[in-house]
Amino acid sequence: MLRSLRFQLPALFLLGVVVAGFVSAAIALRLFRSYAQDRSRSQAYTELKKESSGLKQLYGQQAGLKLLSPSRLELATGDRIYYGGLDLFPGQRARFRPLSPKAIDQRLVRRRGLMLFVFQPPDAKTKLLAVARPLFVGKRFWGTIVVAKPETVLAQRWLALIERLLIAFAGGVLVAAAFAWYSSRRITTPVLQLSEAADEVAHGNYDVDVPSGGAGEIGVLSERFREMASRLGEAEELERNFLMTVSHELRTPLTAIRGHVGALREGVVTDDEMRAASLTVIAAEAERLERLVGDVLDLAKLDAHRFTVLQEEVDMERLVDQAYVTFSDEARRRRIDYRREVEANPVIVSDGDRVLQIITNLLSNAFRWTPDGGRVDLALSATDGSVYVSIGDSGPGIAPSERERIFRPFWSRGGGGTGLGLPIARELAAALGGRISLESSAEQGSRFELMLPTRPR
User: Which residue of 192, 221, 397, 456 has the lowest C-beta tally within 10 Å?
Assistant: First the structure.
């Protein structure tokens, strides 16, 4: 449960909200408290100044008369009154709260006329804000009168703010928790669906219903997962087709070789001409097997990037002629209009055997899809430091949906062949620093164009 993304996402979100709320509240309270204290102290000192001024005048005038009880004044104002100095009203019971000599320097009060200070008398548990004034009877300095009130009165103002902030904070946490739960559901639901789909793919079921995931990164992930499942399904189908195709391609020449070898060993073939014919068939089928195994090895090397490319001067006109001659007999036999057009005689630095292999694979594909009596043309041109070899045919063309698939290993239109010729040709072209492009239509057939640089890049 605790390791579930559905729990961790809202928990982290809520934790962030709580931490941010505490930090914000602490800063706000600190600022407000400082502001409130300064403002409250200012107001308190203003009130204390007025009270102390009135008391100074009152007791300065009542010296020697009947005393107005300080305790009654404290009860009426809520403040405390302290006095230090000569006795104002000798013989009377009522007395001021005594002012400790340590609380304030009375000489300094007399000199300044007014002092604001904070002190904590022995009879109080908290500090007091105080205003001290000198008391004169006539022109004679008689003592110091102090009016004070507790600081705790100031704290009550911002404590009320703390209560309101806590209520607001609790409400905010509840709203954030609801939003975090909703958001986590929106995020984790498609992720869990993707996880279930991944389990299905892991068990070999590639036709799974992948959730869309909506917009954003989850939607992109869902789309990529759907593409991955589709490609895995295609790869599995290609693998099955490859195994069936390769087994068929291997079995056919092996069957022919086994039959001719058996006839030769058992003495069925006694005529020298028939013996030579059997040996020719065995050699051709062995060459066919070698070519098939070579194609598979070449593709494996290209995929593993362990393919070595030679650097040599290659006469492209001679190489194109060599490839052209290879298919001349087939063209005559099938009455195909087979043409060659050379517009330039470039010499490039590349791997001649591999360039010939690319052109041969493209010609083989063209002859395979060109019907008897059709057309195949081979053209060579050069411009701007690049060489172009194009192979056109009058076949049925390639549908747009299949133009990328034909370059995938083991995929073949119509289920014939190994499906390795075009993939090997494109990978070889890329290894040589070139590329293969395709133009195709149902009316004009297909045209493959090989582009190679004249010098390695």
Answer: 456
Residue 11, pLDDT > 70, answer no
CA dihedral 353, 355, 361, 362 (to 10 degrees): -160
Angle between the N-to-C axes of helices 152-202 and 217-266, in degrees from 0 to 180, rounded to the nearest 10: 20
The overall longest dimension of the chain from CA atoms, in Å, is: 164
Structure tokens at 325: 């001659």
Kindly report whether the global pTM for this prediction surpasses the value 0.70: no
Domains within the chain, CATH numbers bracketed: 5-155 (3.30.450), 217-303 (1.10.287.130), 312-453 (3.30.565.10)
Tens digits of residue pLDDT in 152-171: 655 555 566 667 777 777 77
> By the 8 A CB rule, do 346 and 387 touch?
yes
Is the torsion defined by CA of 89, 92, 96, 99 positive or negative?
A: positive
Let me know: does 177 contact 9? Beta carbons within 8 Å: no
- CA dihedral (94, 120, 50, 111) in degrees, to 10, reads 90
| C-alpha to C-alpha distance for 411 and 248, rounded to whole angstroms | 15
